[in-house]
Amino acid sequence: MFRNVSDVETRSRKIALAAPVVLRIDAALILIMAAVAAYYFIYPLWRSQFLIEIWRTEGWNAYFQDAAASGERIYPATSAQIVNNYPPLSFYTIGLLGSAFGDNLFVGRVLSLISLVIISIEVFACVRTLAGGVVGPALGALWFAAIMSHNFTSYVGANDPQLAGEAIMGFGLVWLLRRHKAGQAPLGPLLVMVVGGFWKHNMIAIPLTAVIWLFARRGRRALAPVALSALAAAAGLATCGGIFGADFFRNLLTERDYSFGHILGNIGHLQWSAPTAMIWLSWVLNSRSLGAKFTSVHVPIALASCLLQWAGDATFGNVEFDWIIALGIAIGVTCASIETSVVARYIGPTWTRAAVVTLLALRLIATDRQEPLLVLMDPQFKHSFEAGEQSVRKEAAQVASIDGNVYCDIKIVCRLAGKPFAVDDFKVGEMLATKRLDRSELDELLALRRITTFKNEPIGMGAVDTSLAHAIQRRRTP
Predict the structure, then answer these.
(1) What is the pTM of this model?
(2) Is residue 453 classed as helix, strand or coil in its secondary structure?
């Protein structure tokens, strides 16, 4: 192997001299990705203070959280013009927290921000369990935090239960991987995933991956814990049926329009995560590590789950979260075991990892949407949020003066005005999309029930110009 003792000593000295350089480069890579994540987190954190509609479900969630906290029914009758197709846990939890700490609209936003941090920690923990080390886990977690804060601003820091539900599922996954590695029973983690399903029902990738992984690794020994967790889920559904009645199932199974065109309308958003997926794919084809085997199951399931759910009308970025979490774990194990990649054979693992981080950071930064910079430097951008909040309060005063029930496009306006939740644009939209109702019949129905339609001004996130180029042009225009 070596010609003499001198060769061994020379090689040892070279390794010793290279080690500090490698450590410095790896530390720099972590700092770069941390800076990108912290930079993009500024915007959702700052924006969460304003009384505007960040995402269309905010007011919808707040209404049902109010109902849960006050003991009112949260699953409307079929004849009502509102629907609740979410499971109950998030409404009662956030509603009660809102009763204790203030408006649950803002409590839900804080929980969303905290959940993002928790999921990032869970990504770190999953990668560390699968591949070891610190650098790979840190890069995977920070990439996840960065892309979520930048490309999913409709949900990060919004009153929506998806991120908190993903945090519950993520805890179950971390616990499962650790218990499996230690040869311990997986029932506890599977039950945590069942709880996550009663918080938000469309998180498919983690529990399905867990079940397939257990059967692949444990064979028949996985049958009992999987069966018990399935029984727990069935018992939970039966309990909900007993508490809420048949309306629980009718609401949960609300009909919606399905079309391949809906997938085409959403699939372009995958461009942001595509480089990460390609980097992982180029690595996983040449690796037989535990991390490679796990992500080979997790990533395809997450992508399939995302695409299938996008087939439904009015499904948006939240169904992509399973995919982003899977990629966070995947890129983490890739960076942790980068020495098995083809590129590393030519330029070494350290410089290959540096190239990966450079590509990921550039893909995030190379965009006209630089909201954190606008927050820090553009007074007009900040003023648009203050103006939006003033508009919400002004419209709420107008709605409050209207007799009877009111249908608001922006539901936080009707809620602030003290009006009950009378019309859900999701339900009526799906009734129109599935041809159960046409526009004239809807107008007649609203008139019959004496519901006034209030046309809101375009306030909220859809009215905020987040273009950096436009901001620069405004500053140059006298």
Answers:
(1) 0.92
(2) strand
